[in-house]
Amino acid sequence: MKKALSGILLILIMILTVSPVTSAADMQIQIDGVTLVSEVKPEIKNSRMMVPLRVISENLWATVNWSGSDVILKKRDLEVVITLNSNKAAVNGKPVLLDAKPYLKDNRTFVPLRFIAQAFDCNVMYTNAIATIKTKPFYIDGVKITAVHEEFQMTMGSIMAEIKGNAYIEEMYNILKQNKGAEVEAPGNLSPNYRFAEGYDRTIQVYFVSEKGDYVERFSFYSSILSIGESEDKRRILMYADTENKWYTFTSKAYHEILKLNSITSMYGFQTTISNSTP
């Protein structure tokens, strides 16, 4: 009788302690607390999570180039090289052995999540069906920045959006700082609320938000009003740096980089609307 009870107890313990198997379709990836939105799901190969290269590279804001079967990822002074169907990789020229080989499926390249994240100095944790990636926080003059707020000026009213994700926050700041042009005089007849200037329309205001919710830095963009028949290349863009109280020229190319960043953050779920005063 005791042997029978012991056997039943052992079976119950085994049933209770066996972890459920999670399918790839159920798995989620979170970056800096934001659940990644993607139509391409991660896969599990040899107990390793494999993710689409484009999804992970764009959300870490790394560029991707191909050289034969090699994939080259770059972000500032960091270069990661991986090879399709090979466990050999390199980080800044230093050889690394992978425990899961990158592969091509349905014209999409899948790479091991943990290796790519750690190569870009991110922490990775797994909890049940969630893979959590934490990137390096971004600071402005020693103040930790947790979000970017963008106010889009419409014909009537405005829309305020919030962008999360340290890589996106840092890239937004870099675009603004690195593409700041020559200092110029302020446009004439600027209204007190900075909404419109003579010959210019305000388009976007960008705020860098601290952990406490304070605006650490603010930038406003003004686009020149084109006459009927004027081509788009005649448009002039000015940037007002609020903390400096100075006006600068800003290139159209850099302005479109901001719009591209907005598009990507919206696509992957890193951008949310926090207010909308349009009719």
Automatic annotation (TrEMBL):
Domain of life: Bacteria
All copies of domain Copper amine oxidase-like N-terminal, residue ranges: 30-133
Record-linked Pfam families: Cu_amine_oxidN1
Protein's recorded name: Copper amine oxidase N-terminal domain-containing protein
InterPro entries hit by this protein: Cu_amine_oxidase-like_N, Mao_N_sf
N-terminal signal peptide: 1-24
UniProt KW keywords: Signal
Organism, as annotated: Paenibacillus xanthanilyticus
